[in-house]
Amino acid sequence: DNSYNNVNPKLGVNYQFSDEIRFFANVSSTNEAPTYWELVSASVSPKNPAMAKVSLNELEAQSSNTIEFGSSGSIGQTQWNIALYRSDIDDELISIVSDFAVNGKTDNYAAGTIHQGIELEWIQGLSESLIASGDYLSSKLVYNYSDFYFSGGEYKGNQIAGVPEHLMQFELRYQTAGGLYIAPSVKWQIDDAAIDHANSQFQDAHVLVGLQVAYQVNKDLRVYLDGQNLTDENYQTSYVIRGYSNPKQPSYLPGFGPSVSLGVNYSF
pTM (2 decimals)? Predict the structure, then answer.
């Protein structure tokens, strides 16, 4: 019988610099109890699934102390949201799988981990009435810097697997007064990302190019076209997270090739 009881204090400050600009800061303490799927581990041999076993993990709640500060607002045609944060985590719930990704287990990493980074959203109006009266050209940038690492123990100094350090999305959108918009986009994983906590194997950096086109026929009907990976980038879309990955074991799933979908939205 597992039970978890915690108190999570939080202190925050907001400063409204003007009607359009806000600054904030907060300090918080949080606790996260393990889920059912983290408490229960299944063990099964791929060659003999009838002998599968289920066991209960004795886990502590994950706890963290976090400091965060940032700003949101707008000036003219510029809008932004930015936050900087750092979390010192004790007993982080770390899940890994074994050889062939059949058996998985969650443990508390007692030696400590750090999650710190930057989250940025930047929307910039570029031009009005560029081609026709009432049209609008804008750009949107989303950037995440995630420095998640082990501060002690077996993996001290290593990046936590499954968390790319730099991710960026950029979209350029052209919209007309008549309801048409065209939006090419780029999703960029800037550097290789570790797929195991030993940092022995990495998912390759990659760039995915997309395009969305939509037309609002009337207030109820909208048609759209969505294209993904239009440059046919060869990349890994997901991977198995282990403590250490043997290069001879299967670890990746390939990303999808170029795709185009056409759809209709109708509201009533």
Answer: 0.86
